Structure formats: C-alpha cells, structure tokens
Amino acid sequence: MKQWVRHFMASGELFIWGCGAGLSLSLLMIGGLLVLILMNGFGYFWPADLVELTLKDGKHVIGQLAGEEVSPKGIPRIRIKIGNRDLYGLDYRWIDTDQIVERATPADLVMVERREWGNFYGRLRTLTKEDQPVTEGAEAVWQSLPALIGQTKTSEGDSLYTVLVADANAREQSIGLSQVVRVLRPNDLSTWGKLWVYGGNVWMVLSTEPREANTEGGIFPAIFGTVMMVLIMSLVVTPFGVIGALYLREYARQGVIVRIVRIAVNNLAGVPSIVFGVFGLGFFVYGVGGTIDALWFSDRLPAPTFGTGGILWASLTLALLTVPVVIVATEEGLAAVPREYREGSIGLGATKWETIWKVVLPTALPAILTGLILAMARAAGEVAPLMLTGVVKLAPAMPIDWTWPFLHLDRKFMHLGFHIYDVGFQSPNVEAAKPMVYVTTLVLILVVVTLNLTGIVLRNRMRRKYAGSAV
Amino acid sequence: MNVPPLTPVSVFPEEPSPGQGQAATPTLVERLLTRRQIRLLTDRITHFIIKMGGISIMLCILGMCVFLVKEVIPLFLSPHATPIEPIQLSPLDRPAASTLVGIDEHQELAYVLRDHVLEFVFLGEGTAALSKVPSRGLLPDGTVTALARALGKGHSLALGTGDGRLIPVTIEFTQDFHDEARSIAPSVRVGTPIAAAPTPQPVTKLAYQSTDSEVRIAALLQDQHLWLTSTRTVSRPDGTTAASTVQIDLTPNVPGRVTALTLASRMELLAVGTEDGKVYHFDLRDTAKPLLAETTQASEQGNTITAMAYLMGDRSLVVGDAAGQVVVWMPVREHPGTNQTRMTAVHRFAPHQSAVTDITISQRDKGFITTDAEGGIRLHHSTSAQTLLTLSPKLGSLRSAYFSPKADGLVSVSENNHLLQFHIANPYPEITLATLFAPVMYEGYERPELVWQSSSGSDDFEAKFSLTPLIFGTIKGTFYAILLAVPLAVLAAIYTSMFMHPDYRAKIKPTIEIMAALPTVVLGFLAGLWFAPVLERNFPAMTGMVLVAPFAVAASAGLFLLLPASIRHRIRPGVEALLMMPVIIAVVWGCLATNAWWESFLFNGHYKPWLQTHLGLNYDQRNAIVVGIAMGFAIIPIIYSISEEALTNVPKNLIAGSLALGATRWQTLMYLVLISASPGIFSALMIGLGRAVGETMIVLMATGNTPIMDWSVLNGFRTLSANIAVEIPEAPHGGTLYRTLFLAGLLLFIATFLLNTVAELVRQRLRKKYSQF
Fold first, then answer.
1. Contact B516, B641 (CB under 8 A)
2. I want to staple B434 with a disulfide (CB 3.0 to 4.6 A). Which of A428, B369, B438, B563 is the partner?
3. Using the beta-carbon criterion (under 8 Å), do B521 and A15 form an inter-chain contact?
4. pTM, whole model, 2 decimals?
C-alpha cells in the first residue's frame, strides 16, 4: 500500500487530476451561471398557477410560489409572491410549511396586472360604471372584462369603469380599469394557453416601456438605446480602425516607432473602461460639448445642449474604447492576405491604393467584420463609461423620433447594462425588481453572446481559410 | 490554392478596355487629366489621407494620456497672488486706535473703518460707482476705542466706545443691473447700543457675533474686566419684540492680562488670549453659566497672544503670538471611546518674522490669512498644514486684513493708511501630495488618518481627499481576485494544452472565450444580489467545500487508478476533467446539504458570533470573498487564454524529446513545459492584474463601497474605479473633487499601461525565443 501511494504521488497523476478539477470547476462555474440566468430569465414570463393557502390560524393567502428552503431555525418554509403591494406593502412572504392546512388552485382566482402597485391576486366581485354597478359575480365580471379593458385604453376619461376585487381574506379593493393592463386566470389556462400568454409576455417585455420605476413593464427603450449607441459607435470605429490598421501595416515604415505604437494600441485595449469614461466626460462632454454649446447653442445656456452627457458622447467614448479591437483584428487580417495577391495586383500595373482597395481589403473583409463584431459585443456590455457620458435610468424621449432633426444625438438614452445596475441596486424595492433584472440580464447576454459567437465563428472560418497561405 | 478572381485592372489606361463602360462624353475632370494621372493622383491622395488618419489616431491615443495629465496638473500648481496698486487713504486727525477692513464678494468695493470713520473705496475697474460715497463718522461724538467683526457671511461689525457702549453696525452691498452693466451700492445700518458692563468704562478689546435674534459680545474694559454680554430678542405674539440681556463678568476666570479675544461663529465658544501666552477656552452653550472648559499654554515661550480666530466650522482655533508663531489648535479626544477632549496644537506653520497682527479666515474652506507687524502676509491651509503663499509688501505694520468672501482676494490696511489689495488664485488649497497619500490630522480625529470623504451635508465640512484607502481597496480586490483566478485559470490552461483530448480542446476554447465576453455588470449583479445572500446563508458549507474539495479530488484520482486496468483502459485518455465534474457537483451539493452540521462543527453553532469572538471579524454581506469570486470569474478567461497560448506554443519537438527520453507527462510538464512557458504565464498574470485593477461594475455592485482599510476577507472596500463611478456625477466641473477623480483615473491608466507593457514585452521576447526551434 505504502509503495502504491509513493508510486501514485511520483507519477504525478494526482496533479493531473488536480488540473482537470481546475478546468472542470471553471466550466461548471460558467455553466452554472448561464443556467441560473436562463432559468430565472425565462421563468419570469411563465404565468405560474395561483395557489390559495389556508393557514392554521384560519387566514388565507393567495399568491405564486417563488421557492422553498429550510429556514435558519430548521423549519421548512415556502416563499410566496403575494402581490397586492397597496394592501400589504410587501411583495413576498415566507410561510412555514407546518402552518399550512390546505393548498388549492381554484380556477376563479385572478391575476390583475396593473400600471401601479404591481399585480393584484384575488377574486373578482363587481364591475361598476361611474359608481353604478354593471355586473356582479366573479364569472359575469370575468366575461365582460376583456372587452372593457380595450375600451378604457382608448377613451380619454379617467377610469370610466371600476372593478371591485377581493383579496384572499375578502378584503375589498377597487381598481380603475384604466389602471389595468390585463386580467388573467392562470389556473384556468391550459398549457397551450399558458404558452400563448408566455409568448405575449416575451413580446410585451421586448416592446413596451418600463413602469413602476423600471421594475415592471418592458425594456424596449433600453434595447433601443443599446442598439442605437452600438450602431453610432460602429459608424465611427470602422473607418478609424481600418485607417489606423492600414497605416500601421501598409503605409508606415516598419521600425521601432511602429512597434511602440503597436504595443500602445494593444495596451489601450487593457486600459480600464472607467478611465475612458473619465476621458469622455472631460474631453467630449465638457470640452467638445461645452465648446459646441458656447458657439451654437449659447441662447440656451446655462442649460447645456451638448455640454452634458448624450448618446453621441457615449458612442464616441466607446468608439475610442473599442478602436484597438478593430485595429488589431484588421491588422491580423491584412497580414493574412497572401503575398501573391499583392504581387499579382502590382504586377498587373495597379497602384498601391488600387491594390489595397480592390484586392487586399476585400480579402481582409472577414477579419475587419470580426473585429467590428467583437467591438460591438464589447461596447454592448460596457456600463462604467456610459454612466459618466450620458446613460440615464429613464430617458424622457428616444434618440430618434418624428420631430426635426429626427436623430437627436444630444439626448440621453437608456442602456440594458445600466438598467441592470439601476434596477438591481438603485430601486427602492429590490426584491420586487429582481425578476426584471434577470430578464434584462438575459436579453443583454443573448445580444452579447450572439455577437461574440458570430465573431468567433467568422474568425475561425477565416483562419482556416488562410491557414498556410499567411506569410 | 484557390485564388479568388481579381477585379480586372486596366493595364493600359489610355485605351479604355471594352469591358469597362467608359462614359461616351468625358467629364470635365477627364478632359483636364488623363486617366492615368487620375489614378496616380488618387493614389497620392489616399496615401496622404491614410497617413494623416493613421498618425492622428496614434496622436489621439497619446492625447488621451496628455488630456488626463492636463486636467490633473492644476491641482498641484502653487497658488499665486496678483498685487493691485496700494491706495493711500487720507490720514485721520490722530492715529486710529482700532482699524477694520472688508470687501464685497466681487472685490469691487472695499470699506475701511478707522475708529468711528467709515470710508468706502471703489476698486472695481469695470463697475461704475453708483454714487461717490463720502467717508463719514458713524458716531457724532467719535470716541470709538475698539472694533470687532463677526465671523461668517455678511459684514456684521461692532463698535466699542469710550463710554462703555457697544454699537452693532451692518454693512450691506446691493447689486444693481442697468443695461447689462452691474453697479454696486453700499448701505450701512447702525443698531441700538448695548451697555458693555454695568458700570461705564472705555472698551479696549471686543469680540462679536450676531444672528437675527441673538447678539453676543465679549468686551475687555479699561479696568481689565472682561464682560460677556448676550442679548436675545424674542418676538411676542402681539408683534412687539422684547430683548433679554445676560451680562457676566469673566474676569475671575482669567488671571492674566487679556490681549486677544475671539468668538466662534455659532457663539458657543469664546477664546481669550493673555499676555503670558495662555488661552482660556470658554464653553458658552449655557448662556447663563459660561464654563471655563480648558486653559492651554498656547505659546510655550510665554509670548503674548496677539490674534486668534476660529476656522470655518468652529472646531479649529488659529492662534498667533507676538513672536510670529501661527498654530492651529483643535479638540482631540484624549482616550478612544471617551468624549473627553483636550485642545491640542495640531498644525504649526512657518513663523512670521514679527508679531501676528490679524487673522482672517476663508468662508469656503479651512484656509486663513495672517498678517504681521512688519507688513508680511501669509496664506495658510489648515488641513494640509501648508503655508501656501508668502507676501511682503513692506508698507508698515498691517492693522487689519480681510479674506474676500469667495476666498479669491485679500484687502488689508497698514498703519501708514495704505489700503492693500491682492487677487488670489488658489482653487485647490486642500490638495497636496501629503493630503492625497499620507495620513492627515483632521478635525475631530484622534490621530492622523487616511480618509476619503469628499462631501457631507454641512457647508463647513472638512473635505478628506486621501487616495490611499482607495488604492488599498483596489489592491485588496485585485489580490483576492488573483488568488482565486490564477490557480484555477493556470490549472485549467495546463490541463487543456497538455492533457486534454484534442476533440474536447477545440470545444473548450470558444466556451471560455464566451465567458470572457460576459458583461461585468452581469457578474456584478449576480455577485451582489444572488451570490452574496447565498454565501451569507451557507458560509459554513462554503468553508467546508474548500476543506473537502482537495481530498475529494485526490480520493477520486486514487480510486480511478485502483480500478482494474480492463475498465480503466476502456475510458479514453484526456477526459479527467469530465470525470471530475460529478465529483465537484457532489462535493458542492453535499456541503450545502450539510450546512447546519458544518456550522456546528466548524463554528460552534453560529458562525457570525464565532467569527466575532474568536477572530474579531465582522461579517459584511457584500465582502471581499464575493468580489474576489466575481472578479476572479471576470479575469479567469483572459489569464486562461494567454497561458494556454503560451503552453501550447512550447515547441512540440521538445515535448516529444522529453517523453521519448522516458519522462512521464507530469515530469515533462514540470521540468520542461512550465519552465519554458513561465514568461507567458507571467504575462497572463500581468494582464489579469490590469483587468482586475480597473474593473468597475463588479466592485461597485458587489461591495458596500466603504472606503475602509482592513485586510479582512469578510469586509467590503472601495476601489479607485468604483470611487470614480460613485462620485464623479456629483463633482462640479473643474472643482477639487473633479480633478482628484481625474487623478484617480490617471493612476489607473498608468498602472494598467505599465502592467500591460510589461506583459507585452515578455510575450514578444517569448515569441522570439520559441521561433528559434
């Protein structure tokens, strides 16, 4: 046995297994993280059943199950989303399982999605029109509601109809129909019905504006702001990156200076993004923006137009941040263009520019695209520099609208990454906001990972294509 | 090789090839230039454009550094004063017993009060005088014997007369705008006299403070009696007002001859300086019963105390004596934990050559100006303990001085009736290298400390701009991140490049690259909102995992080797990592399930009190472990990729040689591959460090952002980068805070640039070395 142990240690097999453990731990961490985000993110849209609990003290609780655990005292308990923030003040509640007498999922329970105060869970009672009862009884009200919700949205009157609802313990509450987004009976839905609602929820989050201090509703402005900013950034970073790379690879005399510059460009990619933010704030916002204001918008001073954060400055800052990515990738692409191509072109009498424009650049195009896509992915995920150069928690207007000049580069904008930070860490009701943060995270990760995968696949394909032919 | 079809380029441009659709009618340009010339011209122009563009991009990168430096430099420029031509005032009939000078906030209109004569002097160049304000006597009988000014905003003065009365005087400046031109007009309000003492005596020294409802005066009379007078005006419901006055003789408390008096701006403190160098500190919070709180020997040589003033905030007292010494005293807690304080000489400044004649304080910060009997003027700053400016106009002893309300100018009057004026540019008085990096004695602290606290609710707050706690936080965060990331990433890289089955290797690399692309805001959010509470609940289990995992790995490796060879050989080599996955999952799950057991086994029941009593550690929910793991997560991919590249690039023939000579794959790794690749791994470490140093969102979200200096792994911290993100939205453009944050940015820039350069140089050298094989 002793000998075996000595042999085992000497062979180093143990350490090889240790190395393997390091890798598998890393992989498990990534996997776990993705699973966590996917589960929480996709779970948000599912219309879970409403459960009615009867407790030992005779009270009733209605809500959606949101997890279970063993409490620090060793008692198993469940977490339930009870909603009705206007009545209870809390969104979630822990209930010890030994307190529960009965669990039921009655079909008549409704979930009322409201513009304010979050969801209401309970039962329908009466529908009134200008204080006159129209219909009574849960079933009748349920039948007449869908048509009315559509109407109150279009009519200008403030809550023409009011619906009286009751919570688990028959406490009544009236809700103006103009406040209601949707009424659902999740327990009454078939799986297909739930899937339909699920799809609707996904679409709603992607296409509508946020409500309730960003903790509910959609994230459309944030998606739009992110895309807009990345697009403006790409418009700036592509020509600059390509020109920089062309200069370094094709025009500059290769020597010590170019080597130093190349190292500097590489290093710029490693400079913390917050430093770019500081630079953007000082140079673009206060420097360039302040000058523009003084020259052309002096009538509006001291209220700044360009002298404050805006989508243009944020995009430019990120362009500076990502230009090394494009330069490095383009250079790599230029270096990979087989020498025979150039020689052929020059030999046929083309000038240097014609060779570059018609032969070298088209060949290096995949590399340039890769660089651009990776730059876009990096830009989409950056938050710190944006916080200094123009991102806001709630933008009053989009950077594009129907008023002249249509594209408003001076406007502040919303961003998915900042949305995560803001909703998760700055909102007054973090517990209630968490699901929204997971959804935003999911969308952001999907955007970034898709961009990255495209970039990586493109790059690998290109490398394979030119492998061997590179000089 | 498949060459893509080349775009046809015409070889003989003079003869247009039939394929190219040449316009039938040549354009204007084509008529002037041949096609060949156009082509050459285009080539020339694009050459120029690309060269210019390329150079300007490179300059841009350089410019970024220059710009940051440019924004920081003003912090360290020494202040300077611009003297304005002194104005000779007409002398009085007899030398003035007492003099006071002041100026409005735009430094345009100064007033000089010599005994009872008040004069206004227009100094503003662009501003027209509304009317010439003649000098005038404020009192008909003209026997003013002492003058005093209230500290703080506005110009509230008090006159002490020869017949023992005290007369409050308020001077106000009103601005007027006529057709864009600003004009300024003074107004003078003389209040009702108050008797300085029960029996009339000439007043020789005064200290004065007033608010809307309350006036407090300390008056020294000719018979050396010191009287404290407090008058409170109360509005009655019927609209009339009633004044209640309390007068107390403080003489019994002050044995020596009184030579200087000063009242704090909130009227709660009175300092009395004597001929033998003592200062008596009175606590006036109870109006009826002033309390002699403390007596200090302010001048060790026993020099006469000649001038005193409380700095903004009423905590620090500046004392000047006849030998020209200037010392700032402040109450310092005697023993930690008690409230007993003792006045202590904290900052000593370079002494004047002669007696200090007046001290005037800044209404903006902890700065003050002292004047002396030979006409010297000095500008000091209390926090930084620095004398910032020394001026010597040499126009005779300076009687009175006034630091302009915006702390950007000074007026003073000499015994020869010269009115001196200086414009002072001193925008960043509190910043020196010492206040940024070394411990500083702040008001209310027991010893010099390193503190970052840039703002507070009150105006008279002493800003604390020490970057050291933030640098400490940065290093701490980086350290814990590296501690987790380097072993994991390097082990994973070794395994992938050396031992892993090639089929899997091709799939692992992109996965890790995706991990590198995860936005850090996502990691920060998960760390702060998901992992921090999970860790808090399962801290004992997590500790258990760290203890159990190595044994579990070793045990499973041993068990695998004990398996019969027939089974072992059926498993393809290079899949150890996959086999480890269930083991790790089992360890994690097992420990989490037995959390309660671990808690009683390791921590005797409850881990928080245990840590508190046994190790003296406080558990913060968002602590360095959380940040270390989240930030480790962020830098694992980059360290992994670079180390993996370095390991894979070790020439294959060397490895083959080693294995052929009979070394095991572990020996080959240890004695050949690791040594050859160590510079590459080092460079990976450098780049990982660079990433961790500048990471913002993770630390912002996963720590409490408290700028404390404590190595404990269970505490939070604040880093330079998070500090910038937290504070810069509130920093006014061009202010001290703004520039200090730029300095923080510059430090980060330099640190990461250095780290990356080292890494890059090492890598290049390594590449050259490998290319020999």
1. yes
2. B438
3. no
4. 0.86
Q: B279 falls in which pLDDT band (50, 70, 90)?
A: very high
CATH code of B379's domain = 2.130.10.10
Measured distance CA(B720)–CA(B694) in Å, rounded: 8
Same domain membership, residue B655 and residue B709: yes
**Which residue, among B49, B111, B156, has the nearest Cα to A240 in the 3D structure?**
B49
Per-residue pLDDT reduced to its tens digit, A20-63: 888 898 889 888 998 999 988 888 888 888 888 888 888 888 88
Q: Give the residue from A461, A408, A393 showing the smallest Cα distance to A213.
A: A393
Tell me which residue in A278, A345, A384 faces B742 most closely, judged by beta carbons. Answer: A278
B223 lies in the same domain as B356? yes
A320 and B CB contact within 8 Å: yes
Report the C-alpha gap between B346 and B570 in whole angstroms. 79
The answer to whether A272 contacts chain B (CB < 8 Å) is yes
- % chain A with pLDDT above 70: 96
Q: Do A274 and B733 touch (CB under 8 A)?
A: no
B154 and B212 inside one domain: yes
Residue at B247 is within a domain? yes
Test the B interface: residue of A249, A274, A352 with most B CBs within 10 Å: A274
Final residue belonging to a domain, choices B374, B393, B426: B426
Residue of B490, B664, B757 with shortest CB distance to A267: B757
User: Which range marks the domain in which residue B510 is found?
Assistant: 468-770
Residue B88: pLDDT band by 50, 70, 90 thresholds? confident
What chain B residue is nearest to A1 in terms of C-alpha separation? Answer: B562
Rounded mean pLDDT, B39-63: 86
In chain A, what residues touch B696 (CB-CB under 8 Å)? 272-274, 383-384
Amino acid occupying residue B685: L
How close, in Å, is residue A19 to chain B by CA atoms? 5
Query: How do the residues of chain A divide into helix, strand and coil, expressed in percent and rounded to 5?
Result: 60, 15, 25
* Inter-chain touch A383–B664, beta carbons under 8 Å: no
Is B234 in the same domain as B331?
Answer: yes
How many helices (DSSP H) and strands (DSSP E) are in chain B?
19, 32
A129 contact partners, CB below 8 Å, separation of at least 6 = A160, A161, A162
Same domain flag for B416 and B473: no
ipTM above 0.90, yes or no: no
> What are the chain A neighbours of B489 within 8 Å (beta carbons)?
22, 26
Name which of A11, A16, A434 is nearest B499 (Cβ-Cβ): A16
What confidence tier does B140 reach under pLDDT thresholds 50, 70, 90? low
Number of domains in chain B: 2
B661, B605 Cβ separation under 8 angstroms: no
What is the chain B residue with the closest CA to A18? Answer: B553
